[in-house]
Specification:
The chain is an alpha/beta fold. The protein folds into two domains: 16-76; 89-152, Transcription elongation factor, GreA/GreB, C-terminal domain (Chitinase A, domain 3, Roll), CATH 3.10.50.30. The chain contains four helices and seven strands, in the order H-E-H-H-E-E-E-E-H-E-E. The protein has helices at 3-6, 31-50, 54-73, 122-127; strands at residues 27-29, 74-76, 89-95, 98-105, 116-118, 135-138, 141-152. The strands form two sheets. Strands 5-4-3-7-6 form a five-stranded mixed sheet. A two-stranded parallel sheet has the order 1-2. The longest helix has 20 residues, at 31-50. The radius of gyration is 21 Å and the shape is elongated. Keywords: Elongation factor, Protein biosynthesis. One of its GO terms (molecular function) is translation elongation factor activity. Pfam families: GreA_GreB (PF01272). This is GreA/GreB family elongation factor.
Length: 153
């Protein structure tokens, strides 16, 4: 018998809606990152109070579960002193001769286009612990990165 004759509704052929995956490891945040999480939770709660169609409400509930989990598990990282590259610092470095500047932040605050990279990103892992003037290995090259400056963000 054809599927067209057995199917009771189109709902059984819709893509399943999965939870937003939580990044593994600690949920380290900067003060700015914590503020962004709190703002996102408040915005989603306000959206749910407004109501709307079922699809919008279900998506908002799913997003709210994610952001509330991130809010509860957030660990405010200590403010760095800026002498070495660590969570919460802004670092300028040369990579393949090009000067770049990034700030090392938590997963939810990361935005590579804005120069905010997660502390678990390969570039962050290569930079963490370095001091200005150090030459670091990255991408199968022993001298790929030269740390220029480090500052507390």
């Amino acid at each position: 018998m054809s599927v067209a004759f057995r199917r009771e509704s189109d709902d059984e052929h819709l893509e399943p809606k999965f939870e937003i995956p939580i990044p593994p490891g600690p949920n380290l945040v900067t003060a700015r990152g914590r503020h962004l999480i709190d703002k996102r939770v408040a915005a989603l709660e306000a959206l749910l109070e407004q109501g709307g169609d079922e699809t919008t409400i279900n998506a908002a509930k799913r997003d709210l579960r994610y952001w509330q989990t991130r809010q509860i598990t957030a660990e405010l990282a200590p403010v760095p002193d800026g002498t070495t590259v660590e969570f919460g610092t802004t670092v300028s470095f040369r990579l393949d001769g090009k000067l770049r500047t990034v700030t090392i932040v938590g997963h939810d605050e990361a935005d590579p286009a804005e120069g905010l990279i997660a502390f678990t990103a390969p570039l962050s892992r290569a930079l963490i612990g370095a001091e200005p003037g150090e030459i670091l290995a990255f991408g199968n090259r022993e001298d790929a990165i030269e740390v220029v400056t480090v500052a507390a963000a």
